[in-house]
């Protein structure tokens, strides 16, 4: 799998924004074609696409290319987890502001909680994906903060990661639709 990730990174390296967007548009086109094939077989397939199952935004140009693709794909609902919200290093949040078909979840843990609080003050529309030792710890850490929290049902072993019906994220729907923050647990209880 590392070869695939490395190959994908190399394919994007050195491209300008439009070149990156072209590769991403092709990928989303393949996603749409897969959805269409499944629907022709009678399945109901939500057009929910997770950006990155491993990795993060590596440049502002790359984030801008994604924003172009998201903006031009109103039929697809995108979601992403990111640690790229540091104004002193790489902050992609301004690029994604105002995109109604994108849910952005900041990857949060006890070590970066203060930085994430600052990011949310700057961008109140973002959601959190909070990783704690246990779900109870996560709820306790976030109790004083506004908003609704959802424990990840796959992470808590209440639904399987993959089933005949669809993936856990699509079945749950919280991260793709973004109604609140999500809590993940290191301990699988």
From TrEMBL:
InterPro entries: Gp88. It comes from the Bacteria. Residues 18-175 form the Gene product domain. This is Gene product 88 domain-containing protein. It comes from Geodermatophilus siccatus.
